[in-house]
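User: Fold both of these, please.

Assistant: Here is the first one.
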Amino acid sequence: MTEFRNELFKLAKYLEKTELSKNIIDMRKNINETSETPFFSKSLFFTLGKEERFHFYGTLLLNNDLESGKIEDGILKKIQSLTEEEKELYIRGNQVMLDVFNELRTKLDFLPLAYQLALNPYSKLKQLDFEPTTEHREIELIEYDKLSTSFRSMKLVENVKKKYIQIKDYFKELTFQEIMELLLSIEHEFGQFGFDNNPDTPQKISRKKTNTPLNKEEKIQDFFYSFYFLSISIELTLNTVFSSLIGKDLPLINEDNIIKIDSEVSDMLKKRATYLLIDNGSPSYRIRNLVLMDYEIKKIDKKVHEFGYVYGITVKSGENGDTIKCSVLMVDECLNPYFLFDK
């Protein structure tokens, strides 16, 4: 059984104790506390830079556009850009993110380089006017060894390797741009159905391959769906690393905050659940990030200890306090929310 998820949490624990993490947390706290007005506050970098998905790079990109005068929006133009000290901290944080990704990427050496690079979540963004790296690494690369080694041996990577070997001679080698377009197409395909439903094609493939060999076209589709799921796993990995560097703890769903379980559903590709929770001040739930479900249902003697990918959050205020509706996809040890695709 893969140890990837365990190694990721060990790395996160290590990173949150580093001097770099402390400095980043202090810097972000100072930005929040010294903002003169919420409308033009530098704290807007934390949301407008889409850091929940693009981390330090997203903030650096927004700051880059501010400094170079590329932003035309009248309100956004009034936001003060990062100081050199703040920007340097973000560059150092971005270096950690790139190092983690590249250490994982090197374990995918069975794939052409274009495929490897397409798995970088920052590939969807435009380039900065400068190189967002630093020669002085805060964290030595050896600290990522156990994570990358466990990544190489996990089931999802093995599946991608096996499927790629089967289909690599079926067509000419794709360019980076072609692979990016395929990933975006699959993302759009799933996005059209939301998280409560699934596209028809991956369901049909998942159902068929349990009993019947796939044809050539289906094998290609089978590979690219797994490749897409691997991109989600890597994104969740980087989200967890980023959370540890900015001081965001793993949120919990447990007996202390569950009001009721609204739904629990399994289908051909995934398992999902929706919880109604008391807002008890524990670490906040964040879209596209992990949550730990740890509780017992004594009536049916069921113990739950699973990790989930948060895809929906609704907060409702009431006389007795706030309640939260939190919807999650269960993930396996590979951090794959569509792990039922390959049963």
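And the second sequence with its predicted structure:
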Amino acid sequence: MTGRLSQTANSAFDPSIGEVVADRPEWTGKRKAVDRKARRHWQYPINGTRKDQYASFDAWHPIAMQVLHQESSSFRCIAVFRSVFNWASGTIEVSYATFARRGGCCSEKTIERELGIYERLGIIIVERGWRRSGEVRFRTRTIRLALPETMPSNVEISDFETDNSGPFGGDHEGE
């Protein structure tokens, strides 16, 4: 029994073949490194109508999701963006704790890491600063939407019009 335990402690279980595999070189135990990419601000219509603001976010969101998918990055934070987005300013200013609660009750450190990956991929810009409340100073973090300066070749960029006509193209009488 101890031989089997020591084998599994130094190996990895591969569920696709149902047995322990001794060598998995792709499993290094290290976090994935992401190279920093040049980015540009997303032109968010701060003075536009709320409809224009929603449309702008809805155009940015699927592009950013594609960039994340290509890098095999987590969608946890970007799934929360809409619920914490300040539509008037075009920014996100909530705490890591709020992100963590809304992102599946994970740790704040997980959120911090994921936002760091998003920033290095060029889909957000994080501005850090200070604000004062009486005599107390607080660190602040403002997240702005962005896109990589050079878009990956297989990212589909279109107008992302939403078709709400249903499966029958507006004909709701049947197939």
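Residues 7 and 118 are 38 Å apart (CA to CA).
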